[in-house]
Amino acid sequence: MSTLNKPEETLNGATSLQGSDSLQPTDSDVLLEIRNLTKHYPIRKKMFSRQPAGAVRAVDGVSLSIKRGETIGIVGESGCGKSTTGRAVLRLVEPTAGEIRFEGTDIRALNPEQLRKFRTNMQMVFQDPYASLDPRWTVRQILEEPLRTHETIGQKELEDRIDSLMETVGLSPYHASRFPHEFSGGQRQRVGIARALALNPRFIVCDEPVSALDVSIQSQVLNLMQDLQQQLGLTYMFISHDLSVVRFISDRVGVMYLGKLVELAPTAEMFAEPLHPYTKALMSAVPQPDPDALRDRIVLKGDVPSPANPPSGCAFHTRCPVATERCRAELPELKTYGNRQVACHLYA
Amino acid sequence: MSETATTLVPNPVPQPSAQVAAAKRQTFTRLLMKNRLAMLGFGFIIIWTILAIIAPLVAPYGPTLTDTASKLQAPNAAHWFGTDNFGRDVLSRVLYGARISIWTGLIAVAISFCIGVPLGGIAAYYGGRIGNVIMRLMDILLAFPSLVLSMAIAASIGAGLTSAMIAVGVVGIPEFARLMYGQTISLKEKEYIEASRAIGVKDKVILFRHILPNALAPLLVQATLGMGFAILTASSLSFLGLGVKPPIAEWGAMIAEGREYIISGQWWLVTFPGLGIATAILGFNLLGDGLRDVLDPRLRSGK
């Protein structure tokens, strides 16, 4: 990852330690710094009251720094806020609070027009390749859209760019004039990836990009994404509920529960020794290929609590097998231990 | 696993895409053709449109040509539909009336469409206060009976063909706005719209190039049904004296002029323009229903 650094960028690191809360990049490796990202959806109960009756805390104070060229996996159950996190980082949903710095640029401070231009830096690959391509547009039109939006280029160059984009993702340019419904799911997802790549972004949020695909196609698409990352020096935020997929593609994994990041660690360490009780339960649910292997299956009791009314203290204490009094009362902070972070009183 | 780099060929689809699209269009036309009522409606529309266009060629007399010597004649060989109290040929007037009615319908629907659709789209896409203000305005327009509202508008602009067109067009705006509003609300949550936003496409481009084409089917149905409504309302305005000025041949005005003669037995004065209105509206309504059945089976009424 660090091969991408230019020498002058490492100099910035030295000046960055003024004030612990300032968001100066502490590390020149950092591409994206997310601090206390929050997205609350107001609930209006009464028809004419201006005052919201509460809020669904979809994302509740997520802090994360993403290094250049790495893939950070975000896992969690459905409804834990992982997709909202990805969208809030790109400001596809407007965050309620928090800071997002992309190489020092505060994304939340950009006005709509600046943001529109800034979007060339960061793109998104969507979950459902059947819903993410306009059914009335041909593949050529779909791929032209980003180029026409941000660049003024001639017809000839436009066609060359689209041909090479399609080749990059393993599609034949011959099929550019077809409509999305004429392609298979995997091919459609390749079109989605090509569209995200069209503007040469550096950061791509991948929101469950393979979960709508057949398992055999999943590996093809994952390999493609990995190849592209190496060729183009991309940084991924890879959102998924599939632990094996995340294990395969990620350098680091973040685990989310009820809108909060509960654990963040390098992939190998996370899978070898999960720290947070929730992560342990999650890992124990992964099927093992070896039928004789010893398995401690941790089955969680109850349902995920409502994010509109999260439990006091540690949000996980209602289902945690090792919860104590302290967990009910006090919210554990995400603390750093070596190269990993965990939010649990067990490790305080 | 590096074979993914090699170019994949999409599923063997036997026909090239032009043919696939043609096939889709074929099923659409075939379904519509199979709908006999829709075809009947389409027939009425075609006949009236052609007659309206070639009216000067086929009309036996001028529409305003008076001949007091032969006034109030019952239908006969020289005047198939009879003559009115000024001796004007009713057939010729009905044919010329078709020009005005269809033209009025087209312009009025165009006004409703071109104002209502952007309003509904903007209201739904931006939502919030702008959306609320726009849609509540539409609700206010909808709260008035359409004929009363169009009368009020036509009367305030002043009688005339143009003001009738405007009045009928304005009355039709909320229908299109609401339809587009609903379509946009559901479409704007689609991932391909979000993808365009992620790319940084401008809002107006998203609205016009992504949302409008995907919302077009129900809007077309509404436009077709709206033609019938517009023709009826415009005729009503003329009947009430708020539409075209007297010498001009218009179906509603003809009925108004002829209505005194029903009692004295001159039925042809009101019957033929009445049939004109009825068949033209029937045509548009039948075609509109048929289009809806074919384009959007979910909207099908419980038949």
Automatic annotation (TrEMBL), chain A:
Q: Where is the composition biased (Polar residues)?
A: 12-25
**MF GO annotations:** ATP binding
Q: Which UniProt keywords apply?
A: ATP-binding, Nucleotide-binding, Transport
What InterPro entries is this protein classified in? AAA+_ATPase, ABC_transp_ATP-bind, ABC_transporter-like_ATP-bd, ABC_transporter-like_CS, Oligopep_ABC_C, P-loop_NTPase
**Residues covered by the ABC transporter domain:** 32-283
Which PROSITE patterns has this protein been placed in?
A: ABC_TRANSPORTER_1 (PS00211), ABC_TRANSPORTER_2 (PS50893)
Which Pfam families has this protein been placed in? ABC_tran, oligo_HPY
Q: Where is this region: Disordered?
A: 1-25
Q: What is the similarity comment for this entry?
A: Belongs to the ABC transporter superfamily.
Please report the name of this protein according to its UniProt entry: ABC transporter ATP-binding protein
Species, as recorded: Saccharibacillus endophyticus
UniProtKB/TrEMBL annotation, chain B:
Ranges in a coiled coil: none
Task: Note the CDD domains from the entry.
Answer: TM_PBP2
Q: Which residues cross the membrane?
A: 37-59, 100-128, 140-173, 219-244, 265-287
Task: Classify the protein's membrane topology as the record does.
Answer: Multi-pass membrane protein
Which Pfam families does this entry report, sorted A to Z?
BPD_transp_1, OppC_N
Q: What highest taxon heads this organism's lineage?
A: Bacteria
Q: Which keywords label this protein?
A: Cell membrane, Membrane, Transmembrane, Transmembrane helix, Transport
Compartments, as annotated in UniProt: Cell membrane
What InterPro entries is this protein classified in? BP-dependent_transpt_permease (IPR050366), MetI-like (IPR000515), MetI-like_sf (IPR035906), OppC_N (IPR025966)
Record bears the keyword DNA damage? no
What range(s) does the ABC transmembrane type-1 domain occupy? Answer: 98-288
Family, as annotated:
Belongs to the binding-protein-dependent transport system permease family.
* UniProt-recorded name of the protein: Peptide ABC transporter permease
